[in-house]
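Re: beginner question about structure tokens

> Can someone show what the tokenized structure looks like for a real chain? I only ever see the sequence side.

Sure, here's an example I had lying around. Input first:
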Amino acid sequence: MTETTFLSSLTTLGVGGPAAKYVEAASEAEIIDAVRAADAAGEPLLIVGGGSNLVVGDDGFAGTVVKIASKGFAANSEDTCGGASVVVQAGHDWDDFVHQSVLHAWSGLEALSGIPGLAGATPVQNVGAYGADVSQTIASVRVWDRDRNAVRTFTNSELRFGYRDSIIKAETVGGSPRHVVLTVEFQLALGRMSAPIKYTELARALGVEVGKRAYSLDVRREVLTLRASKGMVLDPADRDTYSTGSFFTNPIVPAPVADALPDDAPRYPVADSTLVKLSAAWLIERAGFAKGFGLADDGVAGGRAALSTKHTLAITNRGTARADDVLAVAKAVQAGVRDTFGITLHPEPVLVGCTL
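And the corresponding structure tokens:
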């Protein structure tokens, strides 16, 4: 009898019911074979990497779950003019690759240290933090196109990167993508200095002005410290890290909507538009949701799920939560912000077999 695999064991949030079928694919060929087999059988398909951006319903997934487990990276070229062209397998641990890039003196990824998950997930939602995102360094992405039944390569411009968005994400439904990422190619500058520091909090921690550079190893160290202080670095001993990271994206709204908020509401201009990006954490806190909301046994999830005690953007599994508990906290926060400010927060993780 085949042992049942539960999605709760494959996600950082630790919720999710059983997979009808589970396949671990450790190479590009195995990934393609597993996807083609599921498609040929007409089975629903769920792609799982590090599981750091998934909320899976308690009923599980009635189809094939393919776990991406390919590993490794290689520099195709390295010169002082063009920098380093580095291809990384989709299943390679993201933070390990960032660490290796710093050690190899490949500059550009250091501010993305500590982000959980795998390299193949980074182009899907244009992963970013501390003023950097992967669209700034990705040269191309090789994918298995399930519609064409063929391997395809997207260049940076073809990926249509946006804020936590890409063409790969746009053509993914419920965790089932049209394009399954096989490898990601990064173009990185050579040197031990970081890319210019764009984030005020990080610049302050490094003791430099915004727009200046610092040693990449120093940037990595400070980013890991900042993320850990917010419960955003995985730690088995810290329940605040059993989450999907930021549960809500920072809303992007027309300028009049932003102007109607209190003067102290953070506002960030959106390039080449009249739109304004707001702080979801500020909206959540000002709507009356403090760190640790939901921890009380009589709370919306009986204390089983709650906002992180370190950061109001993360919804955490306190040890016995089900997906419904996590969603109960999310719905309460979403409704509270909407009632207070007339702004609807949207989830950042992919919801599979459940809705908000």
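Each token stands for a local structural state, so reading them left to right follows the chain. The chain has three domains: 7-68, 73-229, 239-352.
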